Amino acid sequence: MTEPIETTKLYIGGAWVEPHSTEVLEVFSPATGEKVGSVPLADEQDVDAAVRAARASFDAGVWRNTPPAQRAAVIRRAAELINERGADIGALVSAEMGATPGDVATLQQLAGTGVLNAYADAAEAYEWEEKRTGIFGETLVVREPVGVVGAIIAWNVPLFLFCNKFGPALAAGCSIVLKPAPETPLNANLLAELFTEAGVPEGVISIVPGGIETGQALVNHPDIDKITFTGSTRAGRAIAATCGDQLKRCSLELGGKSAAIVLDDADIAASAPMLVFSGILNSGQACVAQTRVLVPRSKHDEVVDAMVTVASTFTPGLPTDPETKVGPIINSRQHEKVTGYIAKGKKEGATAVLEVPAPEIGTGNFVGPTIFTGVTNDMTIAREEIFGPVISVIAYDDVDEAIAIANDSDYGLAGSVWTADVAKGVEIAKQIRTGTMGINWYAIDPSSPFGGYKKSGIGRENGREGLESYLEHKAILMPMGYTS
To answer: Is Oxidoreductase one of the keywords (predicted)?
Structure first.
């Protein structure tokens, strides 16, 4: 990035319009502190304008009445445009939230276009109408879009999250108003333009940058039929309470404290690189990060030594430096939170066997990979989501104890099992109360359901299940004796 991107208008209904708000949201690099750009901060009246545009477009049927195959074609074209502009988008996202261009390309662009294409596949394959025969004869079951969607996303993987909200909403035939995180609004405007270029009609999509007040205005708006939110569990509770009061649909993708269970037959040398990466990916700023590594007591030192060797090579630094593997923490507040957790881990008796030094450059919001041993599952660092590159190694005596430790958490979003026996890994994975599991690695598959148990959220994204969360199901009962 060179010159800051100064945007003076809001992208409402697929067009640039003058904002009602006079407030400006400025964006600064978490790595260097340099200004990346600015956007208008959408106020309640701006949100109302966006929702009214979405409602008008939905009621007019300009998108919901478009055949699913045509909607799928537009979504696929949007994915193509993202890939065509990948370098520019990646540079912008990197400047906004600090990830290295390589991480943006793999964790966000590849994943984001992957979910778009998967939702397009789901829309084409989905049975939008179905005939059923029951005790009263024939019924036609029809699937219809839920209506106007309000989407609120986090800053940690904004490109991916944008795609994972726009994809299912548009595939279902909904209109959508999206609020990006205040740290990363610029890429949302660019992406929205690409969807319009791909063929999304006027009125269907809007972007309302802002903070808590903007989000509250979106959640509270009576013309929003569904809220989809990715962010903290605390914010998710508040959103769920409002949606419950208004009997408004909602889906929540929240926090995690995932466990990676290493069995005694695992190939430790081969597993260590992915095991470490799964714990500190995106500078640890990932809800699915495998931050609790459960290891057999008999293999404890061997696993720790292998992990320390690998993690020591994950160099923190500026995202523009080709040698950097760990970018900055998003801001000073989050940096203070992460370093506070590290201090608390030591105070509660855990041992930091690795603390990669943080460079004194730019903003200083850097934390090097940190690995703790001597951790018990009742310690703060084992129970709370740190959202930084901090891994807790917990020893266990048998597999039953490992399963119990993994399940002893308020969260249930992700997890993994590391073993030479895949069938055994699957057997253990089925016993973990969590929404997604991996065997000998972890990833989110665009065609398979993603979401959490317990305080990790409500509902599922990705695949057919993700599409269905944006649909209503209508039954039309035929006259008795009627056959089609």
So the answer is: yes
C-alpha dist (Å) from residue 461 to 81, 163, 241, 272: 23, 11, 21, 29
The helix-helix angle for 268-280 and 300-311 (nearest 10°) equals 60
Q: What is the CATH number of the domain that holds 208?
A: 3.40.605.10
Structural domain harbouring 268: 259-446
Answer whether residue 1 shows pLDDT above 70: no
Task: Please determine, for residue 273, whether its predicted confidence score (pLDDT) is greater than 80.
Answer: yes
Distances (CA, A) of 135 to 139, 140, 222, 481: 10, 14, 38, 11
Same domain, 274 and 219: no
H or E element at residue 458: strand 457-458
pTM of the model: 0.97
Average pLDDT of the residues in 432-440: 98
Going by pLDDT thresholds of 50, 70 and 90, the confidence category of residue 2 is confident
Catalytic residue among 96, 183, 253, 461: 253
**23 annotated active-site:** no
Residue 56 has pLDDT above 60, yes or no: yes
DSSP state of 282: G
Per the structure, the count of domains in the chain is 2
Residues 345 and 436 in one domain: yes
List of E strands, 5-128: 5-6, 10-12, 15-17, 24-28, 35-40
H helix and E strand count, the chain: 16, 23
Section 270-289 average pLDDT: 97
Whether residue 30 has pLDDT greater than 90:
yes
| Residue 361: CATH number of its domain | 3.40.309.10
